């Protein structure tokens, strides 16, 4: 990626902190104990649709994939895509959700925070679309990338500090917001084909993807999600507009990034008198996603479905 202005460098440093979640600091999920990065072939993605936002400017490294924690990750994504996971037409309820995996804007947890989430939503009659957004460039060599990340986060921490400027946090992800806006535009363009109601398209994001979800909802442009979910994302205070979408938040109290940063995001939504539901689980760490774990954080998806059902985005009993 081209060098960023001094104004954007602090924001990018904050963004990079999210890689701590999937790489080194978070407790390893049950059934996924192998934290070693292992290069894998790029999986077939026959349903992936290029979003037309162009190739990442100045990119020299090419897209590559690796396995870790029993899941798969993409890195050095230079062309954004959207992959549909459509429900059985007999179950389709007209609601759609764009799913934004996390990974610190240097990788994407495509399975645990992308495909598996989308499949689960489709089972409830929701048309789900996994967003593979463009990423900040990292060393092409996987071992070099792993070493760089370990060195960067050897001291722990890495999340945004309490009171971080939300606008500064968002300033460094304009490329990714462009990809998210294009995803909304594509789903609305093909809404009839995919049996989606254009005014019932929401977005859910994980970690860095949660940050992208907030940015997409709050940038005041044309995406305008009907609702949003942020799963183990930042709880920074934001200026919330009067028409902000309903918000669902899930976080573990022992999250090493955001478990002790206050609840400014919740207060912001409540202060704006906008709907918000917040689940703070005692345990779960960061990056639990769809991994099966004995902690109650595993229940976040069921709570999300219940919340969507309460708002009639999912049919009761689906």
Tell me about this structure.
By secondary structure, the protein is of the alpha/beta class. It has a single domain, classed as 3-Layer(aba) Sandwich (Rossmann fold). It is 28% helix and 19% strand. An 8-stranded mixed beta sheet has the order 2-5-8-6-9-10-11-12, with helices on both faces. Strand 3 and strand 4 form a beta hairpin. Helix 6 (174-189) crosses helix 7. It is globular and about 45 Å long. The termini are far apart. 50% of the residues are buried. Residues 1-33 have low confidence and may be disordered.
Note the topology.
Elements: H1 9-16, H2 19-23, E1 38-40, E2 49-55, E3 64-68, E4 71-75, E5 79-85, E6 96-100, E7 107-108, H3 111-122, E8 127-132, H4 142-152, H5 166-171, H6 174-189, E9 201-206, H7 208-218, E10 228-231, E11 247-252, H8 264-271, E12 276-281, H9 300-310
Parallel strand pairs: 6-8, 6-9, 9-10, 10-11, 11-12
Antiparallel strand pairs: 1-3, 2-5, 3-4, 4-7, 5-8
Helix pairs in contact: 6-7
Key attributes of the depicted protein:
318 residues, alpha/beta, Rossmann fold, eight-stranded mixed beta sheet, four-stranded antiparallel beta sheet, 9 helices, 19% strand, globular, disordered N terminus, hydrolase
Summarize the structure.
This protein is an alpha/beta fold and 318 residues long. The protein is 28% helix and 19% strand. The chain has one domain (9-310): Alpha/Beta hydrolase fold, catalytic domain (Rossmann fold).
């Amino acid at each position: 990626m081209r060098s960023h202005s001094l104004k954007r460098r602090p924001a990018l440093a904050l963004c990079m902190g999210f890689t701590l979640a999937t790489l080194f600091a978070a407790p390893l999920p049950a059934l996924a104990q192998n934290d070693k990065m292992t290069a894998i072939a790029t999986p077939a993605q026959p349903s992936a649709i290029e979003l037309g936002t162009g190739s990442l400017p100045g990119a020299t490294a090419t897209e590559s994939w690796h396995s870790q924690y029993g899941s798969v990750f993409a890195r050095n994504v230079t062309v954004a895509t959207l992959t549909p996971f459509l429900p059985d037409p007999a179950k389709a309820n007209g609601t759609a959700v764009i799913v934004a995996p996390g990974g610190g804007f240097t990788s994407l947890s495509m399975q645990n925070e992308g495909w598996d989430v989308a499949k689960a939503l489709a089972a409830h009659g929701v048309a789900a679309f996994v967003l593979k957004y463009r990423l900040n460039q990292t060393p092409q060599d996987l071992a070099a990338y792993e070493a760089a990340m370990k060195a960067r986060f050897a001291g722990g921490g890495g999340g945004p500090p309490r009171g971080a400027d939300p606008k500064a946090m968002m300033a460094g992800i304009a490329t990714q917001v462009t990809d998210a806006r294009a995803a909304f535009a594509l789903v609305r363009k093909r809404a009839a084909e995919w049996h989606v109601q254009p005014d019932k398209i929401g977005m859910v994001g994980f970690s860095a993807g949660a940050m992208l979800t907030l940015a997409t909802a709050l940038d005041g442009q044309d995406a305008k999600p009907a609702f949003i979910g942020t799963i183990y994302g930042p709880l920074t205070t934001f200026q919330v507009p009067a028409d902000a979408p309903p918000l669902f938040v899930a976080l573990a109290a022992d999250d090493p990034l955001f478990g002790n940063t206050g609840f400014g995001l919740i207060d912001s939504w409540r202060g704006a008198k906008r709907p918000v539901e917040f689940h703070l689980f005692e345990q779960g760490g960061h990056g639990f996603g769809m991994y099966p774990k004995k902690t109650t954080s595993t229940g976040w998806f069921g709570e999300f479905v219940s919340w969507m059902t309460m708002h009639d985005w999912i049919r009761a009993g689906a």
